[in-house]
Design goal:
Helix content of chain A is 40%, strand content 18%. Chain B has 17 helices and 13 strands. The chains are: A alpha+beta, B alpha+beta. At the A-B interface, helix 1, helix 2, strand 5, strand 6 and helix 3 of A face strand 1, helix 2, strand 6, helix 4 and helix 10 of B. Strand 5 of chain A pairs antiparallel with strand 1 of chain B, so a sheet runs across the interface.
Chain lengths: 467, 494
Amino acid sequence: MPKWTYLAAAFALAAAVGAAPAGAESRPALPAIPLQTFALDNGLRVVLSEDHTFPVVAYSLTYGVGARAEAPGRTGFAHLFEHMMYQGSENVAKGEYFKHVENNGGVFNGQTHVDYTNYYAEIPSHRLELALWLEADRMRSLAITAENLKNQQEAVKEEKRLRLDNQPYAKALVVDLYENAFTNHANRHSIIGSFDDLNAAKVEDVASFFKTYYAPNNATLTIVGDLDPAGTRQLVEKHFGAIPRQTAPPRLDTREPASAAAKTVAVKDLHAPAPAVVVAWRGPDRGTKEFYALGILEHVLYEGTSSRLYQGLVKGKEVAIEVQGGMGFPLGSYTDYVSPALVGVFAIYKPVTDAKGMVDLIQGEVDRIAREGIGAEELHRAKVQFRSRVIRGLTGTLERAIRLGVHAHFDGDAGRLTADLARFLETTPEDLRAAAARHLISQNRVVVDIQPARSSPPVEGAQGEEE
Amino acid sequence: MTMAPMHAIPGRPARALAATALAVALAAAAAPAPADAAAAQPPLGGSPRPLKLPAVADATLPNGMVVRIVEDHRFPLVTARLAFRFGTAADPADLPGLAAATTELLREGTARMTSRQIAEELAAIGGQMSAEAGSDALAVEGSALSEFLPRLAALLADVVQAPTFPESEVALRKQNMKQELMLNRSQPAWLALERFSKEVYGPHPYAVVGATTASIEALSREAIAAFHKERFHPAAAVLVVVGDVRKDDALGEIRARFGGWKGSPPARPSHPSPPARASRKVLLVDRPGSVQSDLRIGGLAPRRADEGYFAALVLVQILGGGAASRMFLTIREQKGLAYDAHSELSARLLTGDWAAVTQVRTEMTKAALEEVLAQMDRLRSEKVSEKELQDAKNYIVGVFTLRLERPGFFADLLADQIVFGLPADALETYVSRVLAVTPDEVQRAAAALLDTSRAVVVVVGDGAKVREAVSGFGPVVAYDTEGRALQAASTAGP
């Protein structure tokens, strides 16, 4: 890994909204975000961004490991490991991380994605060193014990019951969809994993995962807010500098056959009150021409009330109760994965049609774009929405730290956030048409047909009317 | 249903710490105890940096509309929250859902624009518009790129002043309300909230959490248009604007768009009181096939404007307000019973409620109930330490500060200050009032709120499997997921 040089740069961007018919303006698409980037000798990459508006500071520590790194028989492990990171380290007893952060007025969390896991907090700015000390202590000396593992296996199993097993549609979206859309184990298993695999996790697995992946040279630290760059750099060096580098983790093979076989699977859902359908296509790799085109196309197809699927199916034909979609569906967004991901649409529908009818309507809207493209005004609206969405996602200091961290980690440059926005806003009607024609086609599609397992709630034994 | 990624701890409800004020300076924190004697000490040097309060420019238009503007120039966005000082509690008893349906339908057509044109205009300004129906306030919140402030103001003015409620849109909304109700009834957390609210509030309007099949059927365009005509008036409105705007420009836009609007709503009717409670009662919502039991245990709490609000806020924080709280550390971290174990306070205009909430696997229902009740009892019998109290206060004050930088949250706070009728200095005094709460006040609040012998206990789970486990906690009344009372035999059967 090349050692990064200290770089102070404000990435001001001059890309105005493309082809603006109304209110054409010369102001930048995104306000300048000050960035300072450096790396420690042990390989930890660091990005600082000053903002003194409020006396708060946020950090995100992004590790280059997610659920895709899990071996067969160990599904759910990356997320289980994320829970273990809160179980204590050499100088921080079990449960004390929570107390240190919250009792000092901060908030925190961790997230496991398919391609990364991050740990983040936002805290009053005079407590920045406390936050760095806590984060460094667990990177250096996580307390890996059988008791902690057992306890978190139970917490994670309750999380699975709560968020998957006891909810309508959830299992179809995060388990059935992926198992059928992909063939490579790395891509096809769910982040939450199976009870059997969670139960099988051993203390040795935790130790080896920690050594392999939770090393400074496999991580990026972004710090945003009320900070002094020179002083913050010293603090980072003081707390993280002595943590040893590890052998680089093995490169993950996430390759898939060129195209997914067209496939439809039917599932019964005990908790679903109404039928629903998931339509998903293999999406483009991060940073490709199609990636940018489909990012804009999201606003044409399913983002917001002006989108074609909302206007066509919820309004218009009035067959859908709700329609949602996303790149990286259903967890995270376009920016959260490397490859390969799904572009997915999920619709809960009324019993006036069936799964095939819904799939045909959804594919029909997509095919129309692949055939006819879209007009200049609709494209302009989609770009304004896209720019607005990116800006909204940056207003919170914590959200900015997370977003910059993902770009710094995947793209090797936090400034790619700004550069990428320009790429999205440069796309042409033909780019969108071609991307839809290449990716969003039935030969590259998996459908999950979700039917309620029970037709209607039992009435027998009831007395009186609904209260 | 796009799902959030897997998190270490459950996401908090955005308004769980709803409070209406600004922190002046962060409280100095007491150092947590070190892990052991040999461990390194956490670095806790430095002192809090002063928080510069965002300036709020207040104005009242001649028609009575309250306007509050905050300049925030960090990003080219503007958020405008238009709240009306009446909510779902104003629904006629036979038409729950009327206020919510009316608010939703504001965006579905006006004298000037169709529903689709509104959607496209919003997209063209990088905008979003949401409708919210709370028990004490209805609100429409719009946001857009700040260069489009005039178009956002025009849209907001149009939807609240001249909605037409087209027949076709009303019919579609009714259809979708039925589907939404069905979806709600598939969610255990919603079922728990529904049953809890009915039991805690009885005849009080806060008992109602949404429309019923019958009330959706009875909703008509006429009723909706009449409700709008009677209620949506500038004298009841609060408009908060936060964002990259100059306050004079914003006020000019607001005067131009809202200055000519006229009217006042009728006075608020009086409401029956929630019932007094002499003993503990268990409400079991039978959800066959449920793999978990959703528990919701609680009762009444102070109003937001009450003297006792701050002690209740700190008490509920200590019980289950965060990952350092007693419920989280015992139920989840020590016993591994749950992923989520928290408590929440909903202090509203007329009264309030609090609840301890957790979801556990079916066979642990009894153990979890016992643990929640034990934690409630402990707060009544033992005074909290100064250290634990200070930690809880630090969290409340710190999180409050973190929320200020998010325009939507800040707009929410500023509107709530008016909706809840808080004094003009509520912003300046908030932090000092949190910090002034004493251990004795917390214990007195615990005595009033956390009486386990009179708590409302709601369990949503598989009735056949949990009925026996919950019967030891008090007389059990069972319901099905449609909200109908069940005869005892029907859930005890095979």
